[in-house]
């Protein structure tokens, strides 16, 4: 395993350009805090590379300063501190603190994770829609009493919608 780490260190140190890192932190149910660091770069052979630099337990809380200190230690260990272009992380408040710490110490740029932004946006939109549904739809007060002898006789969703509207199951 040590030899593998030396190969990664050689590969990443000899990369001709800058290196971007992606970081995430999370806590388990029993309050252990973990952090993962991924490096993305173009190797000296001009191939796109992604390597896991670290996957470790964060000592203390992962409030932002501890992860930043841990990341700086890993970057120093791999001797790539001066090659870091930016960091990608989610939008949690601890990641804001961590990114600010790294920006001050390394003069790097933070990139917010687009997938996390889209996820949060969708959750917010769904919460609004879910809250609005009871205002516009009443629960049916009667069952739809239709029997079908074959699948072909089953009503379409449009026909069911018309039935519900005519029979007062939906508010206008």
TrEMBL record:
Protein name in UniProt: Transposase
Coiled-coil region(s): none
One term under GO cellular component: nucleus
Organism: Allacma fusca
Compartments, record wording: Nucleus
Main location, first listed in the record: nucleus
Keywords annotated in UniProt: Metal-binding, Nucleus, Zinc, Zinc-finger
Top-rank lineage group of the source organism: Eukaryota
InterPro entries given in the database record: ZnF_BED_domain_contain
GO molecular function terms attached to this record: zinc ion binding
């Amino acid at each position: 395993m040590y030899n593998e780490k030396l190969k990664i260190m050689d590969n990443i140190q000899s990369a001709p350009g800058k290196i971007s890192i992606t970081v995430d932190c999370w806590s388990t149910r029993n309050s252990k805090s973990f952090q993962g660091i991924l490096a993305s770069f173009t190797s000296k052979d001009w191939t796109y590379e992604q390597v896991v630099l670290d996957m470790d337990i964060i000592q203390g809380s992962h409030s932002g300063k501890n992860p930043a200190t841990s990341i700086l230690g890993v970057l120093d260990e791999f001797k790539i501190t001066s090659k870091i272009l930016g960091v990608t992380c989610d939008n949690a408040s601890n990641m804001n603190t961590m990114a600010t710490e790294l920006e001050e110490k390394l003069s790097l740029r933070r990139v917010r994770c687009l997938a996390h932004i889209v996820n949060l946006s969708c959750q917010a939109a769904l919460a609004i829609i879910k809250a609005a549904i009871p205002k516009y739809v009443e629960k049916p007060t009667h069952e739809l009493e239709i029997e079908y002898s074959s699948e072909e006789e089953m009503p379409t969703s449009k026909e069911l919608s018309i039935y519900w509207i005519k029979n007062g199951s939906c508010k206008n």
